[in-house]
Amino acid sequence: MPEATGRLVAVANLKGGSGKSTLAVHLAGVLGERGWRAILLDADPQHTAYLWAKRVRLPADAERQPLGSIVDARRWVVQLLGLLSEYDFVVLDLPSVIGPAVASALLLGHVVLVPVPPAAVDVEGTQRTLRYVRSAREARTGAPPMVRLVPVRIANGHDLSALCARLAVFGEPLALPLGEYPELAACFADGVWIGSDSRFALARQAFDRLAQLVEGLATGAGEPPLVARARRLEVPPAAKTVRPLRHLAPGAAATPRRGFAWLATLWRRLPKGTGRPSAPVRG
Ligand SMILES: Nc1ncnc2c1ncn2[C@@H]1O[C@H](COP(=O)(O)OP(=O)(O)OP(=O)(O)O)[C@@H](O)[C@H]1O
Ligand SMILES: [Mg+2]
Q: Could you point out which of 13, 144, 176, 246 has its C-alpha 20 to 30 Å from the C-alpha of 135?
């Protein structure tokens, strides 16, 4: 198999409706427009993101590849590695349920983006997601995932410092917030994306910043200065006991040696030292 030199950007939050698909579709499109070979990979059995991407002719490819059962994980990972050898960025839209797709993504992802709307800050789903992120960090032997909480749907005039203080308890760095853009709501129904026309200019700017952050993290070039400033709000990870990994995969409780631990073993066997996309492939 050719070397998997691409970067996996997993968009995860177990809180349903937190903005994962919206983020994944537009980010993949913007990365494509910025000259990267990008693909949106939809692992949600509902396929919303995939159908949307196909409909709007996103400047990125799109595929759907749900992973419902742990027994299919090996094949799924091999397919993912195939995509990572073809593309600079695979933007993975995940379902809101814990299972092998989320577990694999946390074990394999280079960048993990967790969209957090203000209303979801205290919600159990986000906390659970970040517990699994910490478990995955412990299980990984190679470079840990680069995690960013992405505050989304932040309305004009929202008290950002209060929001950041609330998010700080999660112990993960923040990306610059994405605003509340009511015009995004009809994108799927209207068959458009933020690159389609000028009515999305504001949202477009925010997604450009997010794409720059992802590029900076993925290529090792560092983060854009604005993001670096925002990250001053970080606090050290909370000293919490990491939950057993076996919680991560269905059926794992009955067979603790399978499930997430099995995926961790698989991950360790994957080729090490994969390269980094160093420049956009244009034209
Ligand atoms: N920045 C934003 N501004 C305004 N509306 C947004 C924004 N991001 C997402 N939304 C809206 O929030 C709703 C949920 O978004 P989305 O479907 O992307 O969430 P999800 O996490 O993928 O949901 P699910 O868990 O069902 O897969 C949609 O109606 C979407 O249009
Ligand atoms: Mg979704």
A: 176
How crowded is the C-beta side of 164, counted as CA atoms within 13 Å?
15
Domain edges within the chain: 7-269
Contact (CB, 8 A) for 21 and 113: no
Instruction: Report the CATH number of the 7-269 domain.
Output: 3.40.50.300
Instruction: State how far the Cα of 208 lies from the Cα of 215, in Å rounded to an integer.
Output: 10
Query: pLDDT tens across 111-133, in order?
Result: 999 999 988 777 888 998 999 99
Proportion of the chain above pLDDT 70, given as a percent:
78
Please name the amino acid found at residue 271: P
Amino acid at 254: A
Length of the chain: 283
- Ligand 1 atom nearest to 206, measured from its CA: 1
Q: Is 180 in the pocket of ligand 1 (CB under 6 A)?
A: yes
Q: Taking the model in full, what pTM does it have? A: 0.84
